[in-house]
Design goal:
Elements lengths: L13 E5 L6 H12 L2 E3 L2 H9 L5 H20 L5 E3 L3 H12 L4 H5 L6 E5 L16 H18 L3 E4 L4 H13 L4
Parallel strand pairs: 1-3, 1-4, 2-3, 4-5
Helix pairs in contact: 3-4, 4-6
C-alpha cells in the first residue's frame, strides 16, 4: 500500500482523475504532472482494451484494477511524488457497475485510495475512439452519477472539475491547491 501525505516529508501525494469517458482525464494527466513535477500513472484499462478488445468480463476488470493498483504502488515505492493517477480501481469498479450492474468484491475491498479525486464533468463532447462505449447523453449522465456515488459512498475527498481548454486545467490546479497538495 502506498503511504499517503498530509504535509509529512517523504510520503507520496496522490491525485486521481475520475469520471466518465471522454472528459479529458488522459489529456490533463500529463499537463498536471508537468505543472506539479509529478509522475503520471497511465490508464492500464485503455492498453488492455486496445490489445484484448472491449468485450470485458468481470475477471478482465479485476485484472485491470489490480494492475492499475500495482503500477501506482510501484511508482509510490520508487519515490514518485506527486502521483497523478489517470484512473484507479474505483473507476474500474464503476465500469463494472456500468457493464454488469454489479461488481466483484475485490473492488469494494480496495482501500488504497488517493488523497484527492478530481471528478471530471461531462461538459466536453464525447469522442468515439474505438474503445469508448457510453456516448449518449443518458449513458454519460449515468456514468457520471455512478462515479460521483462511488466517491461519496467511500467518503473520499473530491472536487468537480469542468471547463473548456485551459480553464479545465486551471480548475484542476486550483482544486489541487485548495486541497493543499501542490
Amino acid at each position: 500500500m502506498v503511504a499517503r501525505r498530509s504535509d509529512r516529508h517523504g510520503v507520496t501525494r496522490t491525485i486521481c482523475l475520475h469520471g466518465p469517458e471522454s472528459t479529458g482525464k488522459s489529456t490533463l494527466a500529463p499537463l498536471l504532472a508537468a505543472r506539479l513535477n509529478g509522475v503520471v500513472i497511465g490508464e492500464y484499462g485503455r492498453d488492455y482494451a486496445e490489445s484484448h478488445g472491449t468485450a470485458f468480463t468481470m475477471a478482465d476488470l479485476v485484472a485491470i484494477g489490480q494492475e492499475q493498483a500495482r503500477r501506482a504502488e510501484a511508482a509510490g515505492a520508487a519515490g514518485a511524488d506527486p502521483l497523478i493517477l489517470d484512473t484507479d480501481p474505483l473507476m474500474t469498479a464503476v465500469w463494472a457497475d456500468m457493464l454488469f450492474s454489479r461488481r466483484d468484491p475485490w473492488f469494494d475491498n480496495f482501500s488504497d485510495t488517493a488523497d484527492l479525486y478530481l471528478l471530471f464533468d461531462t461538459d466536453l463532447p464525447w469522442i468515439d475512439d474505438g474503445t469508448r462505449m457510453f456516448g449518449t447523453t443518458e449513458l454519460r449522465r449515468r456514468f457520471f452519477d455512478l462515479s460521483k456515488a462511488e466517491l461519496d459512498r467511500r467518503g473520499l475527498n473530491w472536487v468537480l472539475v469542468g471547463g473548456q481548454g485551459e480553464a479545465r486545467l486551471d480548475n484542476a490546479l486550483a482544486a489541487i491547491r485548495g486541497a493543499g497538495l501542490s
